[in-house]
Amino acid sequence: MTPHPDIDVVVFDILGTMVDEPAGLRRGLRALLPDTDEAGVGELAALWHGHVDEQQREILAGRRAYADSTVLDLEAATRVAARAGVGDADAIRALAASGQRLDPWPDSVRALDRIASRFPVVGLSNASRAALTRIGAHAGLRWHQVLSAEEARSYKPRPDVYRLAIANAGCAPERLLMVAAHAWDLRGAQAVGMRTAYVERPVGDPSGAADAFDLEAKSLDDLAAALGAA
């Protein structure tokens, strides 16, 4: 672990980095389809994620008007339910909401509290404002501020999303540390001048040989220690 950079604010990705997004979706799928085996649940989860990823790319490419994550999740849930032969509107809405009932990783709450005792901590997510309210409440995450890509009417890794955090911090980009389990997210932060910290998670996007992040940690606890948070 290299020494921590000189920073004023720590900015965290949320989905996948602070909460286990795939597990929450799988739990919702099992509730909807209790007789479906794990392979079937996995296929439906892949369909969900594929739809959301595809539509975000369409929005970023300008081929679709902006729609927030709540809209995309409901579309994904509708598509998954149709594949499974479920047409009940209430069941589809309940499935869509499973994307907002996400459990924190075992060290998320504890380490976030440690880091928050030393630095302002900001959540920066592709999730909508409404979704972030519910995600934070369910997971028990302590933020000083939470920012949604909805405010930029875009999605990470578009630069405008990271600039939300920079503008709200009121300091130079290099005084902000972006923390994520997704290398693609950190590359986006680097592109606007932010410092970066990669944290390993089971569902993350690992760093590659060409990546050079300021910090790399096996866990959020390790990152807190590197930042000198008691």
Order of helices and strands: EHHHHHEHEHEHEEH
The SS-based structural class is alpha/beta
Structure annotation, total helices: 9
Quaternary state of this entry equals single chain
Secondary structure: helix percent = 40-55%
Largest sheet: 6 strands, parallel
- The tally of beta strands, per DSSP, is 6
| Strand residue content | 5-15%
Average residue pLDDT:
95
pLDDT < 50 runs, ≥5 residues: none
- Molecular shape: globular
Q: Record the strand order, biggest sheet.
A: 3-2-1-4-5-6
- CA-atom Rg in angstroms: 18 Å
Distance between the termini: 17 Å
Keywords: Hydrolase
Family: Belongs to the HAD-like hydrolase superfamily. S-2-haloalkanoic acid dehalogenase family.
Protein name: Haloacid dehalogenase type II
Organism: Nocardiopsis tropica
What does this structure look like?
With 230 residues, this protein is of the alpha/beta class. It has 9 helices and 6 strands. It has a 6-stranded parallel sheet with strand order 3-2-1-4-5-6, with helices on both faces. Helix 6 links the parallel strand 2 (121-125) and strand 3. The longest helix has 23 residues, at 38-60. The model has no long low-confidence stretch (mean pLDDT 95).
